[in-house]
Amino acid sequence: MDERIGDYPDLEELDVEVAVELFPETFKVRWDLCGATADFFAHYFSQMPSCGAGDEVVEAEVENAISYVLNEVVENAVKFQLGGTITVKVGVHEKSLVFVVSNWIATSTADSLKPKLRELVTGDAHELLLQRVEENAANPEAGVSGLGFLTMITDYDAELGWRIDAPDGEAKRVHFHTMARLPIFGI
């Protein structure tokens, strides 16, 4: 079964694709490594002419956007990881920078995330962000999630999508793919 939530186009090939595979079972992936992974991709892609390389202000803005968005997606993959590897792919697709982070998560976790993800892509992001901030202020222990994704949408104009694959023979976990697209090419 292949389920999609939000904008998740078929991305068989990305132009200028770079990929990294993380092996959390053999090498524990720490939070600071998520940032280092995001910063690597941010620096690499911000140097491309179509991302504004050569214009220090634009280059810094692009690098910041890439770093923030990718760090959030990789952190979520690490947080919900259930065995296997984490694959981070970044490339160009239709004049946008596209991030695809894939990992394995518990089927029960995927089921609980689906309504939240649907709300993220169908609701008003600015209203949802304000609501989540207020919920966190009223009850800090509740750990209301979604702030990172909402910030991606409101501050960086990111488009988000998810593909959830439930391969045969895998009842307890699913392959979870998070896609974020930044419209930064051709500025």
Supply the number of structural domains.
1
| Extended strand count | 6
Q: What's the shape?
A: globular
Largest sheet: 6 strands, antiparallel
Average pLDDT for all residues: 86
Number of helices: 5
Give the fraction of residues assigned to helices.
Answer: 40-55%
Structural class: alpha+beta
H/E element order: EEHHEEHHHEE
Q: What are the low-pLDDT stretches, counting only 5+ consecutive residues below 50?
A: none
Q: What Rg, in angstroms, do the CA atoms define?
A: 16 Å
Strand numbers in spatial order across the main sheet: 1-5-6-4-3-2
Question: Span from first to last CA?
Answer: 38 Å
Strand content: 25-35%
Any overview of this molecule?
This protein is an alpha+beta fold. The chain has one domain. About 45% of the residues lie in helices and about 25% in strands. It has 5 helices and 6 strands; from the N terminus they run E-E-H-H-E-E-H-H-H-E-E. The chain has a 6-stranded antiparallel beta sheet with strand order 1-5-6-4-3-2, covered by helices on one side. Strand 3 and strand 4 form a beta hairpin. The protein is globular, with a radius of gyration of 16 Å. The termini are far apart. The mean pLDDT is about 85.
